[in-house]
């Protein structure tokens, strides 16, 4: 059964203006309309609207939502299962933060003592998901590698995200210990190979893309600043080691 736009808006808890906007940008255009021009939303249209609102709740932009739901590979059931997983994680996080707030109140009133670690229980460690260099990466290597990487991170549980970040930092620390040696040494090349393998667990980085990423480490001061937190000169060392690794691998092919 098809319903008019006013009823669709009321059911979804959004404004008629919002539905007009979705229609205007091609995100959700109603399947039918009356002879007098009133938009009519079918059950399938409402299912699509529900999916849009799920993605919005999880922080996706309208442009990205449009790309996802219009993709030939889009699987609504899989998307719903993923939404459910993320919402359950969000609920668990909120429950933990409520406990932290309650304990903080008790701590302030002198009823209990909180350690510094306890004061931050429940906060998310999502900073690595907010990639400030995403646009540069897309421009250099296209969308595929970036989208694959973001999709894999998005599907991780909070514990998996923490493990991912720690594994990444371990590689940085190991490379930092070698930064005063030759980037062409056997030990340096073994360490940089770990970085190459790590990146390819998250996306599809060719040897050229790997070498280009290393160049960005020294060409973009934001990269340099973040990487050199593990040791001054690390970004330059990684750039040189990554170039040597990529060139050597290409010669052997």
TrEMBL record:
CDD domains named in the record: HTH_TipAL-Mta (cd01106)
Pfam families the UniProt entry points to: MerR_1 (PF13411), TipAS (PF07739)
UniProtKB keywords: Activator, Coiled coil, DNA-binding, Transcription, Transcription regulation
Domain HTH merR-type intervals: 2-71
Ranges in coiled-coil conformation: 77-104
An annotated Gene Ontology molecular function: DNA binding
Listed InterPro entries: DNA-bd_dom_put_sf (IPR009061), MerR-type_HTH_dom (IPR000551), MerR_fam (IPR047057), TipA-like_antibiotic-bd (IPR036244), TipAS_dom (IPR012925)
Domain of life: Bacteria
Protein name: Transcriptional activator tipA
Species in which this protein is naturally found: Bacillus thermotolerans (Quasibacillus thermotolerans)
């Amino acid at each position: 059964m098809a319903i008019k736009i006013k009823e669709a808006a009321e059911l979804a808890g959004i404004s008629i203006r919002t539905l007009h906007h979705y229609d205007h940008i091609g995100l959700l255009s109603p399947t039918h309309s009356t002879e007098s021009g009133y938009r009519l939303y079918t059950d399938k249209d409402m299912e699509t609207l529900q999916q849009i609102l799920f993605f919005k709740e999880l922080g996706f932009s309208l442009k990205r939502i449009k790309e996802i739901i219009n993709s030939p590979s889009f699987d609504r059931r899989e998307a719903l299962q993923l939404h459910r997983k993320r919402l359950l994680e969000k609920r668990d996080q909120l429950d933990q933060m409520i406990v932290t707030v309650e304990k903080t109140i008790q701590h302030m009133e002198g009823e209990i003592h909180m350690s510094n670690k306890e004061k931050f229980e429940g906060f998310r460690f999502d900073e690595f998901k907010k990639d400030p260099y995403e646009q540069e990466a897309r421009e250099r290597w296209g969308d595929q590698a970036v989208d694959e990487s973001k999709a894999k991170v998005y599907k991780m549980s909070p514990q998996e995200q923490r493990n991912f970040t720690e594994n990444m930092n371990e590689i940085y620390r190991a490379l930092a210990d070698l930064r005063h040696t030759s980037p062409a040494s056997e030990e340096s090349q073994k360490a940089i190979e770990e970085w190459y393998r790590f990146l390819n667990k998250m996306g599809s980085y060719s040897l050229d893309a790997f070498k280009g990423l290393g160049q960005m480490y020294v060409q973009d001061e934001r990269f340099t600043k973040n990487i050199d937190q593990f040791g001054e000169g690390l970004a330059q060392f990684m750039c040189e080691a990554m170039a040597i690794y990529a060139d050597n691998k290409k010669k052997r092919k």
